[in-house]
Write a structure and sequence with these properties.
The chain has 360 residues and is mainly alpha-helical. It has helices spanning 72-80, 83-94, 121-139, 150-172, 177-197, 203-217, 221-229, 238-255, 258-265, 277-294, 297-311, 313-323, 327-359, and strands spanning 12-16, 23-27, 32-34, 41-43. It has 13 helices and 4 strands.
C-alpha cells in the first residue's frame, strides 16, 4: 500500500533554498546549508525540542522526551485515548460559536479565497500552483528576520499546506522514481520551511502532523513517529487534538494496527467528534478502512453510506484515494465511475434509435 521513501527522514532537515526554491538537506545541528542547485548559502533557524506529554489531563506536559524519541508518539496516543481527554473533546465540540483557525479549507487568506476551492486536483495544480509559489516566496521573511505578524503567519501556514498537498499529488502522477522523490522532497521542504518560521505558534503542531502523515504514506514509520513525537497535544486547542488523531490513524494504517485506528477514533465503538469538516471526513475514511480490513463488512458499508450522504461521492472517493486506504471501498466507488461512463454511450445510442424511429 505504501512505497518507502527517505524524503521525510526526521534525522535531517530539508528546507527550501531562498534563492532558487530547490529543497536542500542539512543535519539537525547545522545553522546553514549550501544549495546544491545554485550554490547559495542559506541561513536556518535551529529547531527546538518540545516536551512530550505523560498520560493525564489535557495540557499535562510534565515529562519531556528528546525530539528524536519515536516512543513519544506512543505517549501522546495514550493521552489521547484517556477517558478524561475524550470527555474534554466532546464538551469542546459541543460548544457553539467557535472558529476554525487552523482549517485551511474554512479559513483561507481573503485574497487567496479563489484558490481555496478544489474540485479536481489536476486542474487546480495546473491553474494555481505557479501563483501559489509566487505568493509563498513573497510571504517568507528574510533570513534572520523574526515573524510576529499574525496575518502573515497564517498566510505562510495556509500556503505551505496547500503547496504541500499539491506536491504530494504530483508525486503520485509521475512515474520515474527520481521524479517521485523530487516531488516528495519539495513537499517536505515547503512544510519544514514554514515550520521553522512558525515554531512557537499552534500552526507548528499541524505542520508536524502533516509531515508525520506524509512520512506514513511514504512508508517511513520511524520518521512518522518522530515527527508526531515532537508535537505534544495542546489541551486548549481542539483542532490540534484532531490533527494528531488523524496522524496517529495514518501511522496505525501503515503498520496494519487496525485496532489502534478504532481506539483513537472510536473508543468503545463511540466515534470521537471533530469540529472541522475536513478532519471529520478523514476520520470516517480511516474508520471505513479499519472495519473493512477487520472483516466488519456491514459496519464499513454503513460508514461509507454515511460518508457519501454527508460529503458526496467526489470528496469521499478522493479522500480514500489520497490516503490510499480502504481498497474495497475504493474499488466499489471506482466501479460506479466505470458504469457511469459506460452508460453514457448506451444512452446516446438509445436516444439516436428513438429519434430515428420517431422520424421514420
Amino acid at each position: 500500500m505504501h512505497q518507502t521513501s527517505q524524503a521525510f527522514d526526521a534525522q535531517v532537515r530539508v528546507l527550501e533554498c531562498r534563492n532558487c526554491g530547490a529543497p536542500g538537506t542539512m543535519q539537525l545541528v547545522d545553522g546553514k546549508f549550501l544549495c546544491a542547485y545554485c550554490n547559495a548559502v542559506n541561513l536556518c533557524i535551529l529547531p527546538s525540542s518540545p516536551p512530550a506529554p505523560t498520560q493525564g489531563e489535557p495540557g499535562d506536559h510534565a515529562a519531556a522526551a528528546t525530539s528524536a524519541d519515536p516512543q513519544a508518539a506512543r505517549l501522546i496516543e495514550q493521552q489521547l485515548i484517556n477517558p478524561k481527554r475524550i470527555a474534554w473533546v466532546r464538551s469542546e465540540v459541543a460548544k457553539p460559536g467557535t472558529s476554525l483557525a487552523l482549517d485551511i479549507s474554512a479559513n483561507p487568506p481573503v485574497d487567496l479565497a479563489s484558490m481555496a476551492t478544489i474540485t479536481s486536483w489536476t486542474t487546480w495544480i495546473s491553474t494555481w500552483l505557479p501563483a501559489l509559489r509566487e505568493h509563498w516566496l513573497k510571504a517568507l521573511p528574510a533570513a534572520g528576520q523574526s515573524l510576529t505578524d499574525a496575518a502573515i503567519q497564517h498566510r505562510i501556514y495556509w500556503l505551505a499546506l496547500r503547496l504541500g498537498q499539491a506536491y504530494g499529488i504530483q508525486a503520485r502522477h509521475v512515474v520515474k522514481p527520481e521524479e517521485i522523490e523530487d516531488s516528495q522532497l519539495r513537499r517536505r521542504a515547503v512544510l519544514e520551511t514554514a515550520l521553522q518560521h512558525l515554531e512557537s505558534t499552534p500552526y507548528a503542531s499541524v505542520l508536524r502532523c502533516h509531515l508525520s502523515r506524509a512520512a506514513s504514506h511514504a512508508g517511513d514509520l520511524p520518521s512518522a513517529r518522530v515527527w508526531l513525537g515532537r508535537c505534544p497535544p495542546d489541551g486548549d486547542d481542539l483542532e490540534v487534538d484532531g490533527e494528531i488523531r488523524i496522524a496517529l490513524a495514518a501511522i496505525d494504517a501503515t503498520e496494519g494496527n487496525l485496532e489502534g485506528i478504532c481506539q483513537i477514533l472510536e473508543p468503545g465503538g463511540d466515534e470521537v467528534p471533530f469540529r472541522s469538516e475536513e478532519l471529520t471526513l478523514d476520520a470516517l475514511a480511516y474508520r471505513i478502512h479499519a472495519h473493512e480490513q477487520l472483516g466488519h463488512g456491514a459496519v464499513a458499508k454503513q460508514l461509507l453510506r454515511s460518508a457519501l450522504k454527508d460529503f458526496g461521492f467526489s470528496r469521499v472517493f478522493g479522500r480514500l484515494r489520497m490516503e490510499r486506504i480502504a481498497p474495497r471501498a475504493r474499488h466499489q466507488l471506482g466501479l460506479r465511475i466505470v458504469f457511469k461512463w459506460l452508460a453514457i454511450p448506451a444512452l446516446v445510442i438509445a436516444a439516436v434509435v428513438t429519434l430515428i424511429y420517431m422520424l421514420g
